[in-house]
Amino acid sequence: MTISAMTKLSFSARMRSAALAFGLALSGGLTITAKAADNPYGLIDPQTISVGTMGDSKPYTFTTADGNFTGFDIELFLNVADRMGFKKDQVIFTGQEFSALMPSVANGRFDVAVAAIGTTEKRKQTVDFSDGYLAGYLSVVTPDAEITNADALKGKRLGVVQGTLQEIYAEKNFTGTDLVKFPDNNSAISGLNNGTIDGHFLDYEAAKDYTTRYSALKITINIPSFDAPAGFVIRKGNDGLRTALNKGLHDAMQDGTWKTLYEKWFPGSPMPDAYLPKK
């Protein structure tokens, strides 16, 4: 073979290699694009939404006798998910301790966390939030009628659920109070009923429910908490899911769905104007 022929063969081989590489690159790009189109919300499984929640935070999120999750947050999320094209059986709820919910979303175990989770700047360092959908009060429930203000909590043992807004608030404002941390409200109320603690600090609606179940318990302190509205928690940077959740939330507020669910789960409680239909 002549040098000229060898040169032509070498050039031809290089062209074929370049064409093959271009084809593979193009194919890979098409695959990535197709995957993005098939999973616009960046879900762990594009066909389902995996949700971390709690089973003992009535009326927000709790389990019924048959083991199903329900409550205001659950029904609202199911409604928003339905607007995104996901039916009820495509939303998978899993119960966890509150303190594990946000880390589980950040680490990719769940797509979303739903449990009346207050939006704070510190939490936004590791996860993202949807727009707010709920605001309320922080309350102290106790059998001790003398605990009526923060000063009366000094020297007392006060229960808080680890990782909650109540824990953050109490550590900052209830100086001189011995905070006892629990994994959930039920275990804290058990401690309250058996005398292990003197009071428990939780959200108003949950406190109200416990006072109907245990006649000795009373709500003695209510603190407004409208600066950290509850939002759905999602993985940081998952803008596709956050945008879709926000649209569903706004639509649910505008067509009166939010109002109907709020009246169902919080009868008699005041409703923030921000979440009601705009005329």
What's the pLDDT, averaged over the residues? 89
Question: Which structural class fits the helix and strand makeup?
Answer: alpha/beta
Identify the quaternary structure here.
single chain
> What is the share of helical residues?
25-40%
Q: What is the molecular shape?
A: globular
Strand percentage, roughly?
15-25%
Number of discrete helical segments: 8
Can you describe what's shown?
This protein has 279 residues and is of the alpha/beta class. It has 8 helices and 13 strands. The strands form 3 sheets. A 5-stranded mixed beta sheet has the order 5-1-6-13-7, with helices on one face. A 5-stranded mixed beta sheet has the order 10-9-11-8-12, sandwiched between helices. A 3-stranded antiparallel beta sheet has the order 2-3-4, covered by helices on one side. A hairpin with a 5-residue loop joins strand 3 and strand 4. Helix 2 packs antiparallel against helix 8.
Structure described in brief:
This protein is of the alpha/beta class. The protein has helices at residues 3-38, 72-83, 98-106, 165-173, 185-193, 204-213, 239-254, 257-265, and strands spanning 49-53, 56-57, 61-63, 69-70, 91-95, 112-113, 127-129, 134-142, 157-161, 178-182, 199-203, 218-230, 233-235.
SSE layout:
Layout: H1 3-38, E1 49-53, E2 56-57, E3 61-63, E4 69-70, H2 72-83, E5 91-95, H3 98-106, E6 112-113, E7 127-129, E8 134-142, E9 157-161, H4 165-173, E10 178-182, H5 185-193, E11 199-203, H6 204-213, E12 218-230, E13 233-235, H7 239-254, H8 257-265
Parallel strand pairs: 1-5, 1-6, 9-10, 9-11
Antiparallel strand pairs: 2-3, 3-4, 6-13, 7-13, 8-11, 8-12
Helix pairs in contact: 2-7, 2-8
